[in-house]
C-alpha cells in the first residue's frame, strides 16, 4: 500500500487499477506521468458529513477519487464528477463500470466541462444554477510561473489558469442551493486568494491546517464555507497526517480507509 492506496493491477501500459478505502471502490488511473489521485482527494472527501444525503459536485474531479469517496461513504448521496480533461473524464466513466463500484451505479455521473465557464455556457455544459447541496474542489494550485510539466494532463491538473480560484468559486456559488456549502483543498499560501474570492458569495469559513507531521509546517489547508453566510473566518484545530516514524496517525488511517470524516 502506498499513501493509503492499493494497486490492484495494471490494465495496460498506460493505466493502473487502484483500490481506495480498503477496496471499497476502485479507479482506473493514468500511468503515463499524468496526475493521479492521492491523499489530497481523500482529505477533501472527508470534509462532507457522514449524514449527508443530498447532491454534490466534485469540481476538477480528475479520475473521481474525492467524489466517489463521498458516494461510497454516504449511501444516499448523488454525485457529479466535473472534469474538463476528456482523458480523465473518460477514465472516471470507465471506473464507474468496474465490478468493485457496482453498488454506486445510478448515483454518480461524469460531466466533461470546464468549471470556469460562466452564465449560459456553464448551464449548457450541465452545471445549472442552484442544483447542489455541496461543492468540493481540488483546484490546480501551482502558479503559471512555476516550472511546467511537459505532460499536458499533469500540467492542467497542477497549474491554475489566468483567472485563479475566482472562476471556480463563482461557479460553486451559482450552482449551489441557498444553504449550500463548499470545501477546497489548497496550499496555505493561497488562503488570501480564497478568502478574497469568498467575498459576496461565502462566509463563516472554517480553515483546517493539514500538517505532514507535528513538527512540520502545514503544507495544505482545507477551507469550508457556507453560501451567503456572514460569519467571520475561523482557524480550526489542525490535522496531522503522519507520526514521527512516517506511519499514519490513527485519525488519518481511519479517514483514508473511509471509516470517518473530518466534519
Protein model, in words:
The chain has helices spanning 39-45, 65-73, 86-96, 119-124, 152-158, 166-175, 191-198, 250-256; strands spanning 6-12, 15-20, 25-30, 55-59, 78-82, 108-111, 132-137, 176-186, 202-211, 220-227, 234-235, 239-240. It is α/β, with parallel strands linked by helices and 263 residues long. It has one domain: Rossmann fold. Strands 4, 5, 6, 7, 8, 9, 10, 11 and 12 form a 9-stranded mixed beta sheet that branches. Strands 1-2-3 form a 3-stranded antiparallel beta sheet. Strand 4 (55-59), helix 2 and strand 5 form a beta-alpha-beta unit. The radius of gyration is 17 Å and the shape is globular.
How would you describe this structure in keywords?
Rossmann fold, globular, 3-stranded antiparallel sheet, 27% strand, 263 residues, alpha/beta
Architecture blueprint of SSEs:
Blueprint: E1 6-12, E2 15-20, E3 25-30, H1 39-45, E4 55-59, H2 65-73, E5 78-82, H3 86-96, E6 108-111, H4 119-124, E7 132-137, H5 152-158, H6 166-175, E8 176-186, H7 191-198, E9 202-211, E10 220-227, E11 234-235, E12 239-240, H8 250-256
Parallel strand pairs: 4-5, 4-7, 5-6, 7-8, 9-11, 9-12
Antiparallel strand pairs: 1-2, 2-3, 8-10, 9-10
Per DSSP E runs of 2 or more residues, the count of β-strands stands at 12
CATH class: Alpha Beta
Find the CATH topology.
Answer: Rossmann fold
- Which band does the percent of strand residues land in? 25-35%
* Low-pLDDT ranges: none
* Secondary-structure arrangement, i.e. CATH architecture: 3-Layer(aba) Sandwich
Q: Helix amount, in percent?
A: 10-25%
SS class: alpha/beta
Topology pattern, helix = H, strand = E: EEEHEHEHEHEHHEHEEEEH
Radius of gyration: 17 Å
**Counting H and I runs of at least 4 residues, what is the number of helices?**
8
C-alpha termini separation? 26 Å
Amino acid at each position: 500500500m502506498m499513501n493509503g492506496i492499493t494497486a490492484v493491477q495494471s490494465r495496460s501500459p498506460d493505466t493502473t487499477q487502484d483500490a481506495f478505502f480498503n477496496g471499497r471502490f476502485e479507479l482506473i488511473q493514468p500511468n503515463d506521468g499524468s496526475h493521479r489521485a492521492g491523499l489530497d482527494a481523500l482529505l477533501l472527501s472527508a470534509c462532507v458529513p457522514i449524514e449527508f444525503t443530498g447532491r454534490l459536485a466534485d469540481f476538477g474531479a480528475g479520475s473521481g477519487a474525492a467524489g466517489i469517496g463521498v458516494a461510497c461513504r454516504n449511501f444516499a448521496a448523488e454525485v457529479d464528477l466535473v472534469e474538463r480533461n476528456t482523458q480523465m473524464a473518460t477514465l472516471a466513466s470507465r471506473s464507474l463500470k468496474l465490478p468493485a463500484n457496482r453498488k454506486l451505479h445510478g448515483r454518480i455521473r461524469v460531466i466533461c466541462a470546464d468549471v470556469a465557464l460562466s452564465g449560459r455556457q456553464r448551464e449548457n455544459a450541465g452545471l445549472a444554477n442552484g442544483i447542489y447541496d455541496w461543492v468540493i474542489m481540488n483546484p490546480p494550485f501551482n502558479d503559471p510561473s512555476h516550472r511546467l510539466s511537459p505532460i499536458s494532463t499533469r500540467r492542467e491538473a497542477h497549474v491554475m489558469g489566468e483567472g485563479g480560484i475566482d472562476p471556480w468559486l463563482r461557479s460553486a456559488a451559482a450552482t449551489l442551493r441557498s444553504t449550500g456549502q463548499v470545501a477546497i483543498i489548497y496550499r496555505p499560501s493561497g488562503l488570501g486568494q480564497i478568502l478574497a474570492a469568498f467575498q459576496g458569495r461565502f462566509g463563516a469559513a472554517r480553515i483546517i491546517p493539514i500538517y505532514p507531521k507535528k513538527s512540520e509546517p502545514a503544507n495544505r489547508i482545507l477551507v469550508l464555507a457556507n453560501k451567503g453566510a456572514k460569519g467571520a473566518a475561523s482557524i480550526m484545530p489542525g490535522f496531522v497526517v503522519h507520526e514521527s516514524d512516517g506511519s499514519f496517525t490513527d485519525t488519518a488511517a481511519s479517514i483514508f480507509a473511509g471509516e470517518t470524516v473530518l466534519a
